[in-house]
Amino acid sequence: MELIEKTAAELRSLMLQGEVNAVQITEAYLQAIRAREPKVQAFLHVDESDAMAQASAIDQKRKHGWQLGPLAGIPVAIKDVLCTKGQVTTCGSKMLQNFIPPYDAHVITRLREADAVLIGKTNMDEFAMGSSTENSAFKTTRNPWDLERIPGGSSGGSAAAVAACEAPLSLGSDTGGSIRQPASLCGIVGMKPTYGRVSRFGLIAFASSLDQIGPFSHDVTDCALLLEVIAGHDRRDSTSVYRPVPPYSKTVHTPVKPLTIGLPREFFDEGLDPEVNACVQEALKVYRSLGATIKDVSLPYSRYAVPVYYIVATAEASSNLARYDGVHYGFRAPDFDSMIHMYSRSRGLGFGKEVKRRIMLGTYALSSGYYDAYYLKALKVRRLIKEDFDRAFAECDVVMGPTSPTPAFRIGEKAENPLAMYLSDIYTISCNLAGIAGISIPCGFTKAGLPVGLQILAGPFEEEKLLRVARMYEAQTDWHLRRPRL
Amino acid sequence: MALTGDQVRWVAHLARLELTEEEFQLFTGQLTRIVDFIDQLQEVKTEGVEPLAHALPIHNVFRPDEPAPSLSVDEALANAPARKGDFYSVPAVLD
Amino acid sequence: MSRPTPYTIVIGLEVHVQLLTRTKLFCGCSTQFGLPPNSATCPVCIGMPGVLPVMNQAAFELALKAALALQCNIASFTKWDRKNYYYPDLPKNYQISQYDLPFSTGGGLEITTPHGPKWIGLIRVHLEEDAGKLLHDETGRGGDSLVDLNRAGTPLLEIVSKPDMNSPEEAKAYLEELRLLLREIGVSDCEMQEGSLRVDANVNIRIPPEHAGGRKPLPGRQHVATPIVEIKNLNSFRAVERAIAYEAQRQFEEFQETGKQMGEVSKATAGWDDVQGVTIVQRRKEEASDYRYFPEPDLVPVEVDQPWLDRIRATLPELPAARRKRFESQLGLSAYDARVLVGQGLAFADYFEAVARGCGDAKAASNWCSNQVLAVLNERKITIREFPLSPEALADLIVRIRKHNINAQRAREVFGIMLQTGDTADAIIKRLGLDVSFDTEQLRELVRKSIASNAKAVADVKAGKQKAMDALVGFVMRETKGKAPTDEVRRLMDEELAKV
């Protein structure tokens, strides 16, 4: 097996045994990026010399016998929604094409402290709005399993980078499924932690009450390793929770017994692709064989998750994105005849269509006369959705179902139909609305060779259990060992 | 419920978005379909349900009143599209 | 006093005060006034992408303190909301403020009017962030405007009164009382010049039907009410008074022309031109402002419990209204004297109390403090903390004045020398040879002698010529080589003349 196809845990033990050093690992991945990027287009910026400088600094540290962090020498790709000090951070938008933040996101600081090598910034749907990464202002990322298809989104670049072995680990952000859905479509592991588990400081906001940063990896063990590094309280985020971070990477191998799995009938509706359903059913058999009890549960209000989401998320976004106005930073249109015109033209030209569409929708939902009917109503139904989960978790350890109703679709297939695109997040959105934890793990392939993901959800701050349940299955299967031919 | 052209224009004005005629036509149709879709929420009975704005029941998070370093003027203005002296410069604002 | 008008003015004030915190509401940048432009900003107060606000505990507690002092009802649960509007001094294009669940409601403040005390109620007090500053091209050539974000994110308290004030004087009295209170409790320095106190006035007038030129009140109203105008940019209390008076009369005249009543046209805003002395009504915006308030997802709600409130309440000093009442009831001062002393601020009232304690004569201490001491402070433009005489020294002077029956003029002379030289009252009195004491009977003897020796003057006084009194008193003064206390001599003279 080539170096680049290994997991972070494997690279870490090679590092610890002195078999390889950080420079060699980084070089290998930079070479993969050079070779594969023309096809995959996962990255927006790769600064090779900066990556090599980080790697040799880590090797120096080791040479001097200093204590190395848990991700020493491991390259991590970063979704361009996360601010990196002194480096362009675009959020996939022309609006921020030249924006250089004078600060690191909290998770970036954590990665640096863990001695990871930040290898590059990955492509994404503009402002994390989309499910295919086609809404990037810069490029269209390809699914490494089928270059004619989308990698999912909005964290499509981060998912594709790991799937294509351009990095062993990456970070994404998940507002309505933006980590789990691309993980599912790219055949890797992706996790959305509980709201408040990971600091959002430095994460460019889409919908503040839903956004959460999470890991991408080849397998569950790596996911645990990366989550352990990024999770924890941060005083700069009022919604980050003060509670200890369990040693996920140590407990991940311990199966959960007894295990009760809830199967919400709403996650197996008529919109579900039969091949995806078949893979999920096979996965459930594996769990049964491991002694798990599988129970039917109902999440009756989850059918309203998509409309609730498209009100709450766009309303928050309409306000979060108001700051991009061409005054203090970001794009300013060259010609205008007044202050107001400067605003509206800069925003009109600086934002892409999907972003504008969502800002319009959110503005409408909050505007005078519609607030009660839309925004307030949505917040009430949001509570009902959360209470559905409270009931389910009172009788089950986890809830399972497909991550995405279909495998990866073709580039351009849904580009003209926003509503159809919105429905591709139908199974992932309720997790964000309820603020709970969710993971997608590979559970098979379609006949056409497209990956399928199994979504597992757990209650708030139950990441440890979630990872253990996911690992139980993974240990019995080899989907996570497959790599696309590129 | 179809959104009227006036509503779409008003919302675009509130959101400070200059739309091309093509975008205006496109959005009017798309937003109408999305709003129709969202309108299914009206069938949910929500009497007595408290709105949920924050997923987590946490409260009283404060920081102490302690100074932290500010950016230098140059750092603060480094990303400004237009700078005049030590200020951000904007087109004349008429009160 | 303004001239009588055929209408009643109705005034509600919205006051913004900056809180005396070291750092901003949501970040660690300095709140100091007058720093070089854009030198006290950071990613949070510039509103850069991805950064988040964290609430300053001191700001919230100062807000609680103010609300307690204003007798507001403190909510047990409060949250923050975003108020969305575009303006270049508002970096995020939304202001973090409070909408439907402010941390306090109700409360109020008592002011003094010529007709007696009056309670001005409050609608609410809430906490929010300030915007930056916009500098316009003063050449009038339409050049670019400049943005300074130093002030952006400074904690602001918004205090919204009920429309309980009915004259410019009442509005001013309310502002003075509010400023005094907020300064006393250390919540704000309320410096209008530095913008740490800002006032918007909502003004309209009620016209009794008989003066309404045939217009009938709208259904449900007893008076004809004109549309409310909100006057902005009021940068002194004097401007508040003048603008309200001007605006009320303008509305009366406008009403006579247009006949438009409140509810028939939307609320307008007006600017105040201090030089021309006129309000300039801006175009009425028929489009209602649409701030699209919604809960701020980046901040969590606050729950306030009784122990926390008790802890804040314990930090409150005696409030001005309570202190004035105590000065009246406990020290026997007049309402006017109590007002003057307390109105000078906490330190001044403390000084007075120390003088009163030291000399045992609150009335004399009050006179000295509100006349001589205050005159010196005003003349030298200093505060009581910088005043050279300790309260003990002034108390000692008052005791000796009484002991030696030193007259007012000589007493002021001694006071003046004390200020100049720093010598004690005792030393100066000795130097001036004023350390003689006349007992009352001794003086009365001299008064009787004067009456006996000046029959003409006595007759003149009896005939109503008060000037003749000077001759009678002058006799006693000559006898005592000018050292007799004139006030005492006059008092005794009155008594003895009454017997004649």
Radius of gyration based on Cα positions of chain A: 21 Å
- The residue fraction in helices of chain B comes out at 25-40%
Structural class of chain A: alpha/beta
Order of helices and strands of chain A: HHEHEHEHEHEEHHEHEHHHHEHHEEH
Largest beta sheet: strand ordering of chain A: 1-3-2-4-6-5-10-11-9-7-8
CATH-level-2 architecture of the domain at 3-254 and 468-481 in chain A: Alpha-Beta Complex
- Individual helix count of chain A: 16
Which architecture of the domain at 5-43 in chain B per CATH?
Orthogonal Bundle
The description of the largest β-sheet of chain B is:
2 strands, antiparallel
Instruction: Give the C-alpha Rg of chain B.
Output: 22 Å
Mean pLDDT score of chain A: 97
Beginning-to-end CA distance, first to last residue of chain A: 15 Å
**Which oligomeric state applies?**
heterotrimer
CATH class of the domain at 5-43 in chain B: Mainly Alpha
How is the secondary structure organized here?
The complex is a heterotrimer of chains A (486), B (95) and C (500).
Chain A: H1 8-16, H2 22-40, E1 43-45, H3 48-63, E2 75-79, H4 106-113, E3 117-122, H5 156-163, E4 169-174, H6 180-186, E5 189-192, E6 212-217, H7 220-230, H8 248-251, E7 260-264, H9 274-289, E8 293-297, H10 305-320, H11 339-350, H12 353-366, H13 372-395, E9 398-402, H14 418-422, H15 429-434, E10 437-445, E11 451-458, H16 463-474
Parallel strand pairs in A: 2-3, 2-4, 7-8, 7-9
Antiparallel strand pairs in A: 1-3, 4-6, 5-6, 5-10, 9-11, 10-11
Chain B: H1 5-14, H2 21-38, E1 62-63, H3 73-77, E2 83-84, E3 87-90
Chain C: E1 8-18, H1 43-46, E2 55-56, H2 57-69, E3 73-74, E4 77-78, E5 81-84, E6 94-97, E7 104-105, E8 108-113, E9 116-129, E10 133-135, E11 145-148, E12 155-161, H3 168-184, E13 197-207, E14 224-225, E15 229-234, H4 237-258, E16 268-273, E17 278-281, E18 294-295, E19 302-303, H5 306-313, H6 320-331, H7 335-343, H8 346-359, H9 362-380, H10 391-403, H11 408-421, H12 425-431, H13 440-453, H14 455-462, H15 468-479, H16 486-499
Parallel strand pairs in C: 15-16
Antiparallel strand pairs in C: 1-12, 1-13, 3-7, 4-19, 5-6, 5-18, 7-9, 8-9, 9-12, 10-11, 13-14, 13-15, 16-17
Helix pairs in contact in C: 3-4, 6-7, 7-9, 8-9, 8-10, 13-15, 13-16, 14-15, 15-16
